Amino acid sequence: MIKAKNVVKVFPGYAGVVRAVDGVSTEVARGEVVVIIGPSGSGKSTFLRCINGLETFTEGHIIIDGVDLANKKTNINKVRAEVGMVFQQFNLFPHMTVLENLTLAQRRVRKRSKKEAEDKARMLLRKVGIHEKANEYPSRLSGGQQQRVAIARALAMDPKIMLFDEPTSALDPEMVGEVLDVMKQLAKEGMTMMVVTHEMGFAREVADRVIFMDEGKVVEVGTPEHFFTNPQEERAKLFLKQVL
Amino acid sequence: MNATDKTWPWKLLLAVILLGAAAGTWGAVQKIDYQWRWNRVPQYFMYLAEEAQKTPFDGTVTSVVANGRDLTVTLTSATAEKAVFTVTADSFKAKAGEALFAGDTVGFAANWRFGPLMVGLWTTLWISAVSSVFGLILGLVTGLARVSKNITIRGLALVYVECIRGTPLLVQIFIAYFFLGTVFNLSRNVCGVGALALFAGAYVAEIVRAGIQSISKGQAEAARSLGMTTFQTMWDIILPQALKRILPPLSGQFISLIKDSSLVSVIAITDLTKSGREIITSTFATFEVWIVVAAMYLLVTSLLSQLVYYIERRFAVSD
Lengths: 244, 319
Known about the structure:
The structure holds two protein chains of two kinds.
Chain A: E1 2-12, E2 17-28, E3 33-37, H1 44-51, E4 59-64, E5 67-68, H2 76-82, E6 83-86, H3 98-108, H4 114-127, H5 143-155, E7 161-165, H6 173-188, E8 192-196, H7 200-206, E9 209-214, E10 217-222, H8 224-229, H9 234-243
Parallel strand pairs in A: 3-8, 3-9, 6-7, 7-8
Antiparallel strand pairs in A: 1-2, 1-4, 4-5, 9-10
Chain B: H1 8-31, E1 46-54, E2 59-67, E3 70-77, E4 82-88, E5 99-100, E6 105-114, H2 116-146, H3 151-165, H4 169-183, H5 188-214, H6 217-225, H7 230-260, H8 272-283, H9 286-315
Antiparallel strand pairs in B: 1-6, 2-3, 2-5, 3-4
């Protein structure tokens, strides 16, 4: 489904260039849940953002459903419509109601009718448990509710893959659970997911595979069981010692 | 400040200061030799125009009917053509049955007409309105160009903004009229409105650019990640939020534009300011006319800012 081959992302910095993503290769199969963990600045978010073209990468290939993002002729908007993204800062559209947040892209990109888009939106809001807030503006919602709306907004496009970029990092602790529950449910339903997170409990419970990144490189890959109980690399051991 | 603190002593102080300033001005005016003639001003808002009513053909007065303070006079020619005039009673010198020749004055009709102040105000309003619309469109396009990825477009916008902001509006109006107006054979109204629109556009562009850049990058990223195009993202997500944020500085710019429009009087457009100058040449009521002109500008700009406050409150629903 997703195939990354030797992806390199170079940022120009003050002291020469920064290789934020440095030769990452991985494959994600349909229905698989991959969790990427690592210390901050390890390039995990940048790599995730490369997958839906929010960052352009310097070298390598990312192939989604047979479409290569490195190819200049690729219509990135078409790819993005199939790849949902959930951000750390929610990024709901504050000038629109919850319902409008969910219907806008459906109507503009998927060209659905108003009724069709609203039915879909209400169904998804019910699924994430906040259908009673459909006509509220995002500023009236708690962080956890906003993030659930953001997930519903991405799902409204019927994406083939969902990317989560630290979806719980900006939340108050008591709201983390409600968002993780939605994500777990999605995983159970067979959604293909790539999740950058610091929630080790979630990684352990839901992930099919854990990728540990540091300094732009993939350091260790394995099943959660293997990774959390018996990591091979020193860097991974050190990281786990600090976070667990 | 404590919520229970009294505010009335401060309000009183404010009133005392304002009254003091007014009294001081009044006192100072008393010391100079100036004859106030406020009674000369109203006629320049509206006046009763006496217009001669002339018969187009030779004929006789066949009927004279009193109609309040006016007379309705009917003339009939030899070929039974009829013409009806309404004239004031004291201006009708002929009698019923009397013969009048083509071009004779039957009498005078009195009609209310707008005076130079109102005509000037109208000119100021339409010049401001038209140049605001063009300035807004120009500013929006230039503001978008300023944040464009294309270096050529960005460069063009930058040169335009810098040239306009770096030169005085008065000089721009002179260049528009005496140089561009001559070369391209443009009327003075086109030159005046054009110069104002170009001027406003440069400032609006910077306001729009600041507004767009003040919207967090996450908004554009969220829209793009849903598959929306650059244009859809700008139109549906960025601009509506930016517009709400830039409404106060934008309205300030348009209020400035109304005031700046007074400069077009230098190329002989009879706006409110030029009307004022013309009235002074015939009345010598310098103080009164300038005070009235200032009050009329103030009235227009206050109404505009009230309108903007109203719109701001309407926009605040999603806060």
